[in-house]
Amino acid sequence: MVCEGSAHTLEQLLPEHHYNRPSKSTASECSCSWAAYNLLMACTACQGQPNSIQRWPYWSRDCGPFASNAMSLRFSKVADLSPWAQANPAQWIGGMFSEDQAQGFVQNELPGSKRTASMGAITGGVVAACAVIFLAVSVFWYLRQKKLLWGRA
């Protein structure tokens, strides 16, 4: 997993098998997190095992106090989680990871949110640069005209 201070290796799933959900003895803040569920179910789907994707209520039923209700985990510095990996699994259709919904995050939410912020910054920077250039040219022209007028007198 990507939780800070943990290391975990996943084996390839055999046909009709699934990753084990946290039990009362293995439940932790990391294994019961939204990210752990979403990433493991995505891994399941990517291996061509859509029938092995488990529903969030089943996955988290033995998590007790570790049941995630927010994205408050600290992740390792190398982790850069996509918004779909951070999504509340209860919001997936039927409480079950969905490749289609995850693709929706990738295609719609990621680019839009990043582009809006960067486009605003770029637009503001361009407008400010144009204003500074216009002001500099105006001052230069004004001073040049004034010098030309004083030179004639």
Q: What does it look like?
A:
The chain is an all-alpha fold. It has one domain. 49% of the residues lie in helices and 0% in strands. The longest helix has 54 residues. The protein is rod-shaped and about 95 Å long. About 5% of the residues have low confidence.
Q: Strand-residue fraction?
A: under 5%
Continuous helix count: 4
Helix content: 40-55%
Strand element count: 0
The major β-sheet equals: none
- Rg result: 27 Å
The domain tally reads 1
Separation, N- and C-terminal Cα atoms: 82 Å
Q: Stretches where pLDDT falls below 50 for ≥5 residues?
A: 110-116
Per the principal axes of the C-alpha atoms, what is the gross shape? rod-shaped
Task: Give the SSE string.
Answer: HHHH
Assembly type of the chains comes to single chain
Overall mean pLDDT stands at: 78
Structural class: mainly alpha
Helix and strand arrangement:
Blueprint: H1 34-46, H2 56-59, H3 83-86, H4 99-152
List its traits.
single chain; 153 residues; mainly alpha; 4 helices; 0% strand; rod-shaped
